[in-house]
Amino acid sequence: MLVKYRKNYEKIAMGLLSFIPSEKDLKNLKKTINEYDTEKDRTLYLWKEKEGIVGLIGVLFKNNQILLHHIAINPAHRNQGFGKHLVKALKRRYPLKPILPTENTEAFLHKCNEDLQNDMKKLMSAPN
Question: Which residues pair with residue 56 across a beta bridge?
Answer without folding.
Answer: 46, 72
